[in-house]
Specification:
661 residues, alpha+beta, BirA Bifunctional Protein, domain 2, YbaK protein, nine-stranded mixed beta sheet, six-stranded mixed beta sheet, RNA-binding
RNA sequence: CGGGGAGUAGCGCAGCUUGGUUAGCGCGCCUGCUUUGGGAGCAGGAGGCCGCGGGUUCGAAUCCCGCCUCCCCGACCA
C-alpha cells in the first residue's frame, strides 16, 4: 500500500505559486521523510517553483575565487579537512580561525537554509544578536567571573570591559525582560545564526573545533517547566530532522550541563574516530550517554559484619596493583583516593577535595566536579597534598575530614571493610568503613563508565565510541531569566521568571563532519541537500563548451544550481576537479557525448555514466535530483538508527518519534 | 598551560648533522609550439628578508640565545 506523503506547510505555500503540475517523488526504498519540502518537487517541465533555498545563482568556474590544490597544506590531519582545503572551500587564517571561500559559503548557506526551515517549522522566529557584549551583561549572571579565559575579553577606548559572544543566553534573557510581559506572550522560540568566539585552549581538526565559528542558537521561553519540556522535545525532533536532511548520521546522548547550568541536556553526536568526546553506549537497550555523565550498574556489595580497623605495613605499595599483589586481596576490596583542588563559584579560594572510589574503578572528573559544585578541577601540587594531610600513594579519607572535602562514591559508601591508605608512607588500613572511620561531606556516583561495564538500565555490557558534538539542547530553567529579571505576569496574577531552554548547532562543524562522512579517495561527495551546486558541467573541447553554455542556461532557467567548468582545461583536469569538489551530478558535454546524442551524466556517489538525450536532460536531472533528496532522507534515517543501535531508552527521545510512513 | 614536532617560492618537500661564494626538487604559475575523455609533452621564463630579532664567525638557511606562529598528544566546547 502506498501512502501519499504530505507536503509540508511551507512547501504548500510555495507550490501554490507554481504553475506546473507537480508530482511527488517516488519511493526509493526504506523510510520516507516525514513531510516533503518544496525542493522535493518534480516538475515535468523541469521548472522549480522557487529558487532552491540557500542557492542564489549558478556559477562559472572561471569566476570562482579559490584554487584547487593538488596536495593538502601540511597540518591538515583528517581527510575531511584536507579535502575542504584542497577543494577551495575554506582557508585557515590563524589557529582555529577560518575564511570561507565561495564554495564553502554555499555549503554553509544550504545548511543554514535547512536550519531556518526546521527552526521556523518548530515555531521559531529569527533574530540577530550582537557579537560584542558589555561586561555588565555577563556580570549579572556571574559568568564574567566563572567562565574563565575561554570568554574573550577586551576594553574599549574608555576602558570599559567587553566580551566577545561565546553564547547568547544573557542577551536573550535581557531582551525577554523587556519584550515579554504576560503569559500571553509565551511560549516563544527565538533563534539566530550568528558568529561566536570561544578562546578554546586547543583548537583542533580544522573546522571541527574552531575558535571563531557560526552557530545556530535557539532559545525557548516558556511559562513553566511543562512548556519547556514541550519545546525541548520539539527541538529534539527538529534536530533529528536537521541531521537527517543534511545527511549526517547523528545520535542523541544524555549530557552534562556544563557551564550552561540547568536541569538536563542532550548532545547530538556524529560518531567518528576523530571525535573528541567519548560516548558510552548500550547495544542491548539503547542507553546512550556522554561519558561525562554515563552511569554503570554497581552490584550491591554483600553484607558482612564490620571488622575492627587494623594497620598493615605495605612498604612501596603505592598503587592499587601493588596493594592487590602485596595483600592478596581483590581490587574491589580496596578504596582509592584522589586529591584534587576544585574551583567553586563564590569561593575565593580553591577547595581541597579527596575523592574515594573503589580500587577497581576510576574517578569521573565531571561527576566529581558536579558533586562538589565545582567548575574546574586540577590535581593537587605536592605542597597541597601535604597541607591536606595526605601522602602520595597512601592517601586516605580517614582523619582528614577537617582539612579536605571528602567525596565518596555511593558504592564505597555501602562497601564494608575496604583497604584504604593510612595517610602515612608505607602503611595501609584494613577494614575501613565509612561512618565509623570517617565522615564524608558528599556521597555521590563519581565513577567513570567504560567498555565492558554493565549497563545501568539493562545490565548488558556497555561499549564506548568517539563522537563529535554537532548540536546540543539544554533545559536551562530560570537561571538566566532570574539573573536578568526576565519575568512575566501569569494568569494567576503572580510574577514568575521565564523558563528557558537553549539549543545550539555548530554550522561550520556540521559542514566539517559532513566532509568527513561523505568522501572517497578522489574527493568530497556532498549529500544533495547541502552540496554547493547540484550539477557540475564539464565542457570538453570548443564544441563541448558551446553546447555546455546552452545547457548551463537551460539548467539555470530551471532553477537547478549549476557549476559550469568553462576554464577550457583538459578533460582529465576537469574530471579530477569535479571529483574533488564533490557535486552530486557531473554532466559531461563533449564531442563524444554530442555524437552519442546527448549529455553524459555521472553521479559522484558512484555508478556508471549514462547518456541522456539533450531534449530530456533538464527534466531528467530535476527528477533524478528529487530522487536523490528522498533517498538521502531515507538512507539517513536507517543509517542513524543502525549506528545508534536501538536508541530509545537512553537516548530518551522525548515526545513521539517521526511518524512512520 | 604541560609534553612532542614544524616554520625554506602559491602548495608539498630537500638542504641544516659536518657553516663556504649563484638555495634546490616536484606540483602549480607565465610565454610559445605540439597535444586534447581521467591531473599532457617539449622549450623558455617568473617567483625566496630560508618565520622574526639578537649573537658567534672572515662568512649563517645551517651553530647559539630569545621571541612569534602553526601542527600533534593531555585538562574544555557547537
Amino acid at each position: 500500500m502506498r501512502t501519499r506523503l504530505p507536503w509540508s506547510e511551507e512547501a504548500r505555500d510555495v507550490l501554490a505559486s507554481c504553475g506546473c503540475t507537480l508530482s511527488r517523488p517516488r519511493r526509493t526504498g526504506g523510510a520516507l521523510p516525514r513531510t516533503l519540502s518544496a525542493s522535493d518537487a518534480i516538475c515535468p517541465e523541469g521548472r522549480r517553483p522557487v529558487p532552491l533555498p540557500g542557492i542564489v545563482s549558478p556559477m562559472r568556474m572561471s569566476r570562482l575565487f579559490g584554487a584547487t590544490l593538488r596536495t593538502a597544506p601540511g597540518g591538515a590531519e583528517n581527510a575531511g579537512h584536507q579535502l575542504l582545503l584542497r577543494g577551495g572551500y575554506v582557508r585557515q587564517l590563524g589557529q582555529g580561525i577560518f575564511s570561507y571561500l565561495p564554495l564553502g559559503v554555499r555549503v554553509l548557506r544550504r545548511i543554514e537554509a535547512v536550519l531556518r526551515e526546521e527552526m521556523d517549522a518548530a515555531g521559531g522566529v529569527e533574530v540577530s544578536l550582537p557579537v560584542v557584549h558589555p561586561a555588565e551583561l555577563w556580570r549579572q549572571t556571574g559568568r564574567w567571573d566563572t567562565v574563565g579565559p575561554e570568554l574573550a575579553r577586551f576594553k574599549d577606548r574608555r576602558d570599559r570591559d567587553y566580551a566577545l559572544a561565546m553564547t547568547h543566553e544573557e542577551v536573550v534573557a535581557t531582551l525577554a525582560s523587556t519584550e515579554i510581559r504576560s503569559w500571553r506572550d509565551l511560549p516563544r522560540l527565538v533563534y539566530q545564526i550568528q558568529l561566536k568566539f570561544r578562546d578554546d585552549p586547543r583548537p583542533r581538526a580544522g573546522l571541527v573545533r574552531a575558535r571563531e565559528f557560526t552557530m545556530k542558537d535557539a532559545y525557548s521561553l516558556d511559562r513553566d517547566v511543562a512548556g519547556l519540556e514541550r519545546q525541548y522535545a520539539r527541538q529534539h525532533e527538529a534536530y533529528t530532522t536537521i541531521f537527517d536532511r543534511c545527511g549526517l548520521p547523528a545520535i542523541a546522548v544524555g549530557a552534562d550541563v556544563g557551564m550552561m547550568g540547568g536541569s538536563g541536556a542532550h548532545e547530538f553526536m556524529y560518531l567518528t574516530p576523530i571525535g573528541e568526546d567519548t560516548l558510552v553506549l548500550c547495544d542491548s537497550c539503547g542507553y546512550a550517554q556522554n561519558r561525562q555523565v554515563a552511569r554503570l550498574a554497581k552490584a550491591a556489595p554483600e553484607h558482612e559484619p564490620v571488622q575492627p580497623i587494623e594497620r598493615v605495613d605495605t612498604p612501596g605499595a603505592s598503587t592499587i596493583e601493588d596493594l592487590v599483589r602485596v595483600l592478596g586481596v581483590g581490587a574491589e576490596r580496596t578504596a582509592k583516593a584522589l586529591l584534587v583542588m576544585a574551583t567553586v563559584p563564590g569561593c575565593p579560594e580553591m577547595l581541597p577535595v579527596l575523592a574515594v572510589v573503589r580500587g577497581d574503578m576510576t574517578v569521573n572528573e565531571t561527576k566529581l566536579a558536579n558533586a562538589v559544585g565545582a567548575t574546574d578541577l586540577r590535581p593537587m601540587t605536592d605542597e597541597e597534598v601535604v597541607a591536606a594531610g595526605g601522602v602520595a600513594g597512601y592517601a586516605s579519607p580517614v582523619g582528614v575530614a577537617d582539612r579536605v572535602t571528602v567525596v565518596v562514591d555511593d558504592l564505597v559508601a555501602t562497601s564494608a571493610n575496604l583497604v584504604a591508605g593510612a595517610n602515612e608512607e608505607g602503611v595501609h588500613l584494613r577494614n575501613v568503613n565509612m561512618g565509623r572511620d570517617y565522615e564524608p561531606a558528599v556521597v555521590a556516583d563519581i565513577v567513570a563508565a567504560g567498555d565492558g561495564d554493565p549497563c545501568s538500565v539493562c545490565g548488558a555490557a556497555l561499549r564506548t565510541e568517539r563522537g563529535v558534538e554537532v548540536g546540543n539542547i539544554f533545559k536551562l530553567g530560570t537561571r538566566y531569566s532570574e539573573a536578568m529579571g526576565a519575568s512575566f505576569l501569569d494568569d494567576d496574577g503572580t510574577e514568575k521568571p521565564i523558563v528557558m531552554g537553549s539549543y545550539g548547532i555548530g554550522v561550520g562543524r556540521l559542514m566539517a563532519c559532513l566532509a568527513e562522512e561523505h568522501h572517497d579517495d578522489a574527493g568530497l561527495r556532498w549529500p544533495v541537500s547541502v552540496a554547493p551546486f547540484e550539477t557540475h558541467i564539464c565542457a570538453i573541447g570548443d564544441d563541448g563548451l558551446a553546447a555546455a553554455e546552452e545547457l548551463y542556461a537551460d539548467l539555470a532557467g530551471a532553477g537547478i544550481a549549476t557549476l559550469l567548468d568553462d576554464r577550457g582545461e583538459r578533460a582529465g583536469v576537469q574530471f579530477a576537479d569535479a571529483d574533488l569538489l564533490g557535486i552530486p551530478l557531473r554532466l559531461t558535454v563533449s564531442p563524444r557525448s554530442i555524437a552519442a546524442g546527448g549529455i553524459e551524466v555521472r553521479e559522484r556517489s558512484g555508478g556508471e555514466s549514462v547518456v541522456v538525450p539533450r531534449a530530456e536532460i533538464v527534466a531528467w536531472i530535476a527528477g533524478r535530483l528529487s530522487e536523490l533528496r528522498v533517498g538521502l532522507a531515507a538512507a539517513m534515517a536507517t543509517r542513524t538508527a543502525a549506528r545508534a543501535g536501538r536508541a530509545r531508552a537512553g537516548a530518551a527521545r522525548p515526545g513521539s518519534g517521526p511518524a512512520e510512513v
